[in-house]
Amino acid sequence: MTTGRIRFIATAFVSIILLLVARILYIQLYLGNDLTIQATAQKIVAMPFGASRGNILDRNLIPLTNRSQKYDLIIKPLEFKNNNKINEISQILGLDFSDVKKNIEARKEPLLIEIDKDKRDLLKKENLYGLSLINSLKRYDQSTPAKHVLGYLNKTDMVGETGIEKFYDNTLRSKSPNKVGVIMDGEKNNLIAGLGYRLIKTQDTSEKMNIKLTLDYNIQRISENVIDKYNLKGAVVIEEVSTGKIVAMVSKPDFNPNSVGDYLQSPNNELFNRAVASYNLGSIFKIIDLASAYSKNIDPPIFYFCPGYVMLGDREFRCSTYAEGGHGQIDLHEAFASSCNPYFIELGIRTGDTAIIDMAKKFGLGMETGISSQGIAESSGNLPMPNNILTHGDIANLATGQGDVMATPLQVADMVATIANGGIKNKINIVDSIVDSEGKTIKLLGNNEGKRIIDKHICDKIKNLMEEVTISGTGIRANLDEYGGAGGKTGSAETGQYIGGEKIVHAWFAGYFPRLDPKYSISVFIENGKSGGTVAAPIFEEIARNILMLGL
């Protein structure tokens, strides 16, 4: 054999050996974990655990979900054969020994129990065999803000069930959740030595995506705390005047997202989002009366005599001052500030129902705002059809926001924001974008359109009247003169319903602040609050004052 042939054979042999070594290293170092999982996949009994799910963030990237610590105990039943520690575990967990023993003996798959920190510390100290402790973050707890906006997950498969969680489920959900499993001998049903129980981590290498909302965590928390402080049932919506972004949306009472089933039959309707539900509007609608009259170049009466009521046919429409004999001689400023019904009924008849309804539609009443396309289901409210308004009495109901006039707290906040913004109505947004783990924008989801629906000089006239409401009118308890002033309007809306023989009357206050350069509009709705001036207005004042004091 020639030297050249020997060298060729030796080179080929060495090359083959090197290739085999390289292949073995590649399998061991890069494919080992995948192949282990694939090899055991047909013999594993597992349950999803700790699924990596994207966060829901506020406008400043403050997390609204995953805010508190969570502790999970994993009990490995097959490792408790001939184990006398079950009684000790039962005592620490505060559970019945026989129930725990029966549960452990009846299963092979891991048993997952959420525990508190004290129990975690005791179990950790005991260092018991057959147990594992895992620290993670709770998706929600009782203090989670904006629960009606965020929604909640189906506890069975951790899929979004309502709200943002449902609408953006595909963006937020991990494609490959972690699992806790037991790997068995397929023939004898025994633990495989060296594998047994193990945490199988996701192999999904794609980056977790988060949903960024327009909500402001601090403003949302302020608003919720104020409503909770007085134990009120209702809603608060706060809109950024210049952009149309919703910075707070509160509905009370709310619920614990981890135990939704407890509320399904509740008479308090905790799962119901009052911020986007329709309610009788009352005197808040007088803003629309003025806007429609001014737009038709109809000047409100300079002076008007209010006897406390007005008769239209055989129907009597009363003023809030009926018992005192009316307001007497008043001008527009006094009529708006004191919410005189006869004055605005007269103005509504002069303006006409068609003009009033058309103006209400321009402000978005009677139609959805559009946040339903961002995951928040909403009511469209209601406006009467012009062909259903046949008499002056029907116009009287329209002009005073009674009868068929209904709107949501969200629509009311936007109506006031449009006035404060000089007649430019912005597209409402509650979702901003999809962002990565570093807060970088992946995709914008908001719509930043705006259009003028009414002249600025008309809005200036209305703002002047709304500011008078907080200085000398029914909204004096919403006065913010010490912090830059405010403008607003009260409403006490009769519903035609009764509880125990007593009328149900909803309380409203809607306003903006600061007075000279409005930043936010706030709509406050208190269910059966009776008086907008005495119940809803102080809520506006306290929320706005806290926002201003914190420089938000």
Describe the structure.
By secondary structure, the protein is α+β, with helices and mostly antiparallel strands. Among the domains are: 3-42; 217-257 and 272-549, DD-peptidase/beta-lactamase superfamily (Beta-lactamase, 3-Layer(aba) Sandwich). Helices cover 33% and strands 22% of the residues. Strands 12-11-25-24-23 form a five-stranded antiparallel sheet, sandwiched between helices. Strands 2-10-20-21 form a four-stranded mixed sheet, with no helix packed on it. It has a three-stranded antiparallel sheet with strand order 1-8-9, with no helix packed on it. A hairpin with a 2-residue loop joins strand 23 and strand 24. Helix 8 runs antiparallel to helix 16 (532-549) and helix 9 crosses helix 12. The radius of gyration is 32 Å and the shape is elongated. The model is unreliable at 39-45 and 191-195 (pLDDT under 50).
**Can you tell me the CATH topology of the domain at 217-257 and 272-549?**
Beta-lactamase
Number of strands: 25
Overall helicity:
25-40%
CATH H level, superfamily name of the domain at 217-257 and 272-549: DD-peptidase/beta-lactamase superfamily
**What percentage of amino acids are in beta strands?**
15-25%
| Average residue pLDDT | 86
Gross geometry: elongated
- Poorly predicted runs: 39-45, 191-195
| Largest sheet data | 5 strands, antiparallel
Number of helices: 16
Q: Give the strand order, joined by hyphens, for the main sheet.
A: 12-11-25-24-23
The assigned CATH architecture of the domain at 217-257 and 272-549 is 3-Layer(aba) Sandwich
CA radius of gyration: 32 Å
Name of the top-level CATH class of the domain at 217-257 and 272-549? Alpha Beta
Query: Distance between termini?
Result: 90 Å
**Alpha-beta content class:** alpha+beta
